[in-house]
Write a structure and sequence with these properties.
By secondary structure, the protein is mainly alpha-helical. Helices cover 45% and strands 4% of the residues. It is built from 16 helices and nine strands. The chain has a three-stranded antiparallel beta sheet, with helices on one face. It has a two-stranded antiparallel ribbon with strand order 1-2. Strand 4 and strand 5 form a beta hairpin. Helix 1 packs antiparallel against helix 16. The protein is globular and about 55 Å long. The termini are close together.
Length: 449
């Protein structure tokens, strides 16, 4: 779709966004940011494909094709694929630390991690189809990806829902995509690791980014301990669950995106003549489980559930409002959520003192930081999810504020990984792919062709 006109400076902004994607394109996939994240990340690629779908169908398709080429035999889609990586490369934790060869299910053709990330991929494939310049090729692509997506979702429900509740659990903060969120503080504190339990390691994530913007060393100790726990059990999901994994959390955002992905699988099934009913049924079951188990009646949002402690995690993170993206809450609950989400707590009020919505954590809650990773900064993909959720429930004003922030933040803070909600300053990795990709998706609504 050729752009002939965009208002004010948005044509230049769109051009710059495409340049970011060009800079991070590696021939068949994109890196999130070359200096900080030099490989392929799972949910990043789904969001990147959503952006590419508007102007380069080939790259959009290749993005997920490259990711699923490293899918494990048990169906899992790894959270990082180390394409053409040297096992001794300085990135940490790299292939030499993950040691996925311990698992009989690991691919022999790719180095990967042994954990996963949120399942946004079916949603991305449907988006690619719906915006394709060549509909026939897109339909063939859906048929190609459909069995891979089925295997991926089957893995999650088979291996991560031992209680058969319709809710899956995550085993590592990295699986949530919200690495150092305050959500995980009570779980990690309960781990109480001794020095001898932590494998020797040297962080690499603070080389290109200010350490004050990254997770603390104590958090990282827990991350690395968990990876060692998994590799010692050969990434066997049954053993990880039975043998006392200290991090077992039914995460609101992860389950919401799985629910939405199952809804989108039903649409993909219809496109290729498959039966959509099983996907609709599974989506409905997960939605009901989110609504029944994870809803916090006292606080008016959805809270993660810590299986290890047998208790909810009542932390006011932005992710607690994500179930609107999958149509989970009824109108009354959605209204309660918007009453809180649409306040100054997340910079989404009608006059948020000049700030930018939506902070990833309530700015009035303990431990809020406007620049430390998931403890307050704005993330473009979270704004995108919340924008769509709010819009679906008829909250056009709040959705519009998030849409404006998706456009304004790259203008103010450049194409960074995340942004200070108080000033709009960009933080984290530079030249960040999904910031550019989702800006492209939003700006596509302004195109005059």
């Amino acid at each position: 779709m050729a752009v002939t006109e965009l208002p004010d400076d948005r044509s230049d902004l769109l051009r710059r966004a495409r340049e970011v994607l060009d800079a991070n394109w590696r021939g068949s996939f994109s890196v999130p940011a070359l200096r900080q994240y030099p490989y392929q990340w799972s949910w990043d690629s789904a969001f990147i494909a959503i952006g590419y779908a508007h102007f380069d169908q080939h790259r959009a398709e290749e993005e997920l094709r490259a990711l699923f080429a490293a899918q494990w035999a048990d169906g899992r889609v790894p959270h990082i694929v180390f394409h053409e990586a040297d096992p001794a490369a300085p990135y940490f934790p790299g292939p030499a630390f993950w040691q996925i060869e311990r698992s009989p299910h690991a691919p022999s053709t790719h180095y990967t991690t042994g954990i996963v990330q949120p399942p946004v991929h079916a949603t991305a494939v449907l988006h690619i189809h719906d915006h394709a310049a060549d509909p026939q090729r897109a339909l063939a692509y859906v048929a190609e990806m459909f069995p891979k997506l089925c295997a991926w979702h089957d893995f999650l429900y088979r291996e991560r829902d031992p209680l058969d509740e319709g809710l899956v659990y995550i085993v590592h903060p990295w699986e949530s995509g919200q690495d150092n969120s305050p959500l995980w503080d009570p779980v990690l504190a309960r781990m109480a690791l001794r020095p001898e339990q932590i494998p020797p390691y040297q962080r690499a994530d603070t080389r290109a980014v200010d350490p004050s913007e990254r997770p603390l060393n104590a958090d990282y100790d827990c991350y690395i301990y968990l990876v060692d726990f998994f590799r010692q059990r050969a990434y066997d999901e049954g053993r990880i669950y039975r043998e006392g994994c200290p991090f077992l959390v039914q995460d609101v955002l992860f389950n919401t995106l799985l629910c939405r992905a199952e809804q989108d699988m039903a649409e993909l099934a219809e496109l290729i003549g498959a039966d959509p009913a099983p996907f609709r049924a599974r989506a409905a079951r997960t939605a009901a489980a989110i609504d029944a188990k994870l809803w916090d009646e006292d606080r008016g949002y959805y809270a993660d559930y810590d299986l290890g402690a047998g208790a909810a995690i009542p932390v006011p993170a932005l992710a607690g409002f994500s179930p609107m993206f999958a149509g989970v809450p009824d109108a009354e609950r959605a209204g309660r959520m918007v009453g809180y989400l649409g306040s100054d707590a997340f910079w989404l009020g009608p006059d948020p003192e000049g700030g930018f919505p939506a902070s990833s954590y309530d700015r009035f809650a303990p431990g809020y930081s406007p620049r430390r990773y998931w403890r307050g900064p704005v993330w473009i993909h979270m704004n995108w999810l919340m924008m769509h959720g709010l819009s679906a429930y008829g909250y056009a004003e709040q959705a519009g504020r998030l849409r404006s922030a998706i456009i304004d933040l790259p203008r103010v803070g450049d194409f960074r990984e995340y942004f200070n909600p108080e000033t709009g300053t960009g933080h984290g990795a530079e030249v960040f792919s999904w910031t550019a990709a989702l800006l492209i998706d939003v700006l596509s609504g302004d195109q005059v062709t």
